[in-house]
Fold:
Amino acid sequence: MTAPRAQIARAEVLCRERGVRLTDQRRRVLEILCAAGRPVGAYEIMDAMREGPRVVAPPTVYRALEFLLEQGLIHKIESLHAFVGCDHPEHPHSSEFLICLECGGVAELKDDAVERSLESVTRESGFRPRRRVVEVMGTCAQCAHKEECARKEEADRSPGPVD
Amino acid sequence: MTAPRAQIARAEVLCRERGVRLTDQRRRVLEILCAAGRPVGAYEIMDAMREGPRVVAPPTVYRALEFLLEQGLIHKIESLHAFVGCDHPEHPHSSEFLICLECGGVAELKDDAVERSLESVTRESGFRPRRRVVEVMGTCAQCAHKEECARKEEADRSPGPVD
DNA sequence: GGACGACATGATATCTTATAACGTGCCGAC
DNA sequence: GTCGGCACGTTATAAGATATCATGTCGTCC
Structure:
């Protein structure tokens, strides 16, 4: 993951280059997402914004999100109805996400093999792809490790038939 | 796509084999999905069920959907908040979907290359996958063809600089 | 500098999707 | 016959997203 600061700074530069405006509201939403470092729902973002100077309504948040999505500065995780800051917004792309069901963490992948195979299988069927959603739910390495340890401890305390 | 009839029949057999109950409500939901042959939202299903003998409330529909999902008889299309009948429910699986933004149609893929590459990239990072969501939005072959034709006609009527 | 237009935001209402919580009825096992 | 598990009914509400119209802000062109 990238440092939140750096992410905002890059966004500033990109927007200037592209001639689009990273307004206060939009920057605020991006900051919240980057600071969280995990998927955050639109209404949670809204709540976080209430902490700031003024109260905002859903459309405000969704408009900011729409802008950030268009600019490739954030991604939407469809299966969670939530959003995350993009790790490498420099070039437009779709990404693959690994979503941990235990800790709620999300890792953004960029894997050529996956993308190539998806590309080829879609084209084969005459399909013209525009946007890809690739989300794998499961258990991340950290949480898998923790589980492992817990199970081992359990076994040590009461040795016997396992599972 | 498989004939709706056949899909229901297979579901009957599978449920019997597995010792689970394909009740009237559940069969009805499955029928509606299979007959539609396209993604259908939960509330649309509910409306369709109102045509039948009795009125149903959202929880009823969602419970039936949950059961059918567990049994692998249907899939959820996350990016559409909608459900489709599964083309080959015999063996449990995740699938890839091609979603046409023009006609709303959905094709279910089962591509080894995509699955293998996803599998390997997730395992590499120590991630233990449980469920995959792979959805490609774009234009299907049919709609792409139609568009092509329309554009050609346009060009014929008013020949000049294109786009 | 004032009028205009484009874009961004504010505010209210509403729609869509999904689930919580609790009650009732059916049916098989013991 | 009663007990327990499962499916379904019912009501309410949470959570996510958008439509609509009003207001504000800012640069540009005259």
Q: What stands out?
A: Residues 21, 23, 25-26, 54, 56-57, 59-60, 63, 67, 81 of chain B lie near DNA strand D (CB under 10 Å from a C1'). The two ends of chain B are 37 Å apart (CA to CA). The first strand of chain B starts at residue 74 and ends at 77. The interface with chain A takes residues 78-79, 96, 98, 100-101, 107, 109, 111, 113-114, 116-118, 120-122, 125-141, 144-145 of chain B (CB under 8 Å).
